[in-house]
Design brief:
The protein is mostly helical and about 55 residues long. The protein is built from three helices and no strands.
Length: about 55
């Protein structure tokens, strides 16, 4: 099984053309949350700044 972040490049174009199913939507949401967490850790940015990416 792939890490959710590895699936994002495949799910974003699908999401632009049609609605994702519940599983795909959950994976995309998890990957987004993972990305924001990592960004916060790496860049040491605030929660307020993180919200600009949401």
């Amino acid at each position: 099984m792939q890490h959710p972040a590895q699936l994002v490049p495949h799910l974003i174009p699908i999401n632009k053309h049609k609605a994702l199913n519940a599983t795909q939507n959950k994976i995309l949401h998890q990957a987004h949350q993972f990305f924001l967490t990592q960004l916060q850790l790496i860049k040491q940015i605030t929660q307020k700044q993180i919200k600009t990416f949401s």
